[in-house]
Amino acid sequence: MEYMQLFKSIRSEKPGKLYLFHGPEEFTKEQALSQLTDRLVPPKFRDLNYQMIDGTETSADAIIAACETLPFLSDRRLIVVKDYAGLGGQKSGDEEVLKKYLGRIADDTCLVFYHRGAADKTRKIYKAIKKNGETVEFVRLKNPELSRWTAKTFRKYGKEISGRELNYFLTQVGNHLEDITNEIRKLASYTGSSDRITMEAIDKLVTPSPEYTVFQLVDAISSRQRAKALQLLEVLLDSGQSVFGLISLIARQIKIMLLCKDYTEKGYSLSGVQKELQSSPFKLHPYSVKKGMDQSRNFTMDQLRKDLDICLEADYGIKNGRVKERLGVEMLVIKMCVSE
Question: With CB atoms 3.0 to 4.6 Å apart as the test, which of 54, 60, 63, 303 could cross-link to 299 if both were Cys?
Answer without folding.
Answer: 303
